[in-house]
Amino acid sequence: MDKIIKLDSVAAYNTMRGVSTLHPLVTVLDLSKAAPMPARTFNFGLYAVYLKELNYGEIKYGRGHYDYQEGTLVFIAPGQVMAVEKGVKTFAPKGWALLFHPDLIKGTSLGKHIHDYSFFSYDVNEALHLSDKERQIVLDCFAKIEYELQYAIDKHSKTLIASNIELFLKYCIRFYDRQFITRDNANKGVLEKFEDVLNGYFSSDKPANIGLPSVAWCADALNLSPNYFGDLVKKETGKSAQEYIQAKIIDVAKERIFDIDKSVSQVAYELGFKYPQHFTRLFKQKVGVSPNEYRMLN
């Protein structure tokens, strides 16, 4: 097995790419002017965003392969692994890269909200595909960050750089919203499959054996990352994926409660609840009455 190379500092990354380090915690690279990445496996200790402009080879990221397309943004969070595939001696695309160390954003607005940018946890096949106008906005944001890096570090540097990165990420939220809309038919297909997955789950012995279906389990069944799946469901239905699952549980429960040969506890265990009182609490929260009261009223 190939040794995994840890990239824990901006300086280490810049050295590998053959460029100078203007700031110890952040870098913006024109990839056409940087040395190529070797065909190795890397564990990132940095946040990284790649704007890929030309199709060049294949890399493996997370659990999937990705054939890069023109005008694509890929996001990498600390702790994630990216590998340039064997057989590709170097990885030298045209485009841009933004990398920053988690320490850069500590104590800033971005630091408080970085986990809101869920696309850092998307799988690579859920990358952001840009229009020409969107690509230009991204390049403008990168140019502002690069402009700050040309100045000597002063008391304003951290705030200005972090603010410009935050502005860029906010644009990316807008672009992802657009991508969800333009992929509307595909998204509806995912929702239909999600419904099928839940129906199949509750008609099997899985609830009794492994418990309630989690968002992560459903996402995996649909070959999506949990974050992308959750964001898609929220945008399409207005509910979180967890709320959607809970609504399905209540819908199935209402049917099964009418089987008077079963106690409410039996229904709870069949649905995957470890403790019947948790089922009763959820049912009352969602329906307004307890399972027993619902049975009597109907």
Task: Reconstruct the topology from this structure.
Layout: E1 4-7, H1 10-17, E2 26-30, E3 37-38, E4 41-44, E5 47-52, E6 58-61, E7 64-67, E8 72-76, E9 81-84, E10 90-91, E11 95-100, H2 109-113, E12 128-129, H3 132-149, H4 157-182, H5 184-202, H6 206-210, H7 215-221, H8 226-237, H9 241-257, H10 264-271, H11 276-287, H12 291-297
Helix pairs in contact: 3-4, 9-10, 9-11, 10-11
Task: Tell me about this structure.
The chain has 12 helices and 12 strands. It has 298 residues and is of the alpha+beta class. It has a 5-stranded mixed sheet with strand order 1-4-9-6-7. Strands 2-11-5-8-12 form a 5-stranded antiparallel sheet. A two-stranded antiparallel sheet has the order 3-10. Strand 6 and strand 7 form a beta hairpin. Helix 3 runs antiparallel to helix 4 and helix 9 crosses helix 11. It is elongated, with a radius of gyration of 24 Å. The termini are far apart. About 5% of the residues have low confidence.
The percent range for helix content is: 40-55%
Shape: elongated
Q: Summarize the biggest pleated sheet.
A: 5 strands, mixed
Beta fraction of the residues?
A: 15-25%
Q: Which radius of gyration do the C-alpha atoms yield? A: 24 Å
Strand count:
12
| Arrangement of strands in the largest sheet | 1-4-9-6-7
End-to-end separation in angstroms reads 62 Å
**Average predicted confidence as pLDDT:** 88
- Secondary-structure content class: alpha+beta
Order of helices and strands: EHEEEEEEEEEEHEHHHHHHHHHH
Low-confidence stretches: 56-69
Number of helices: 12
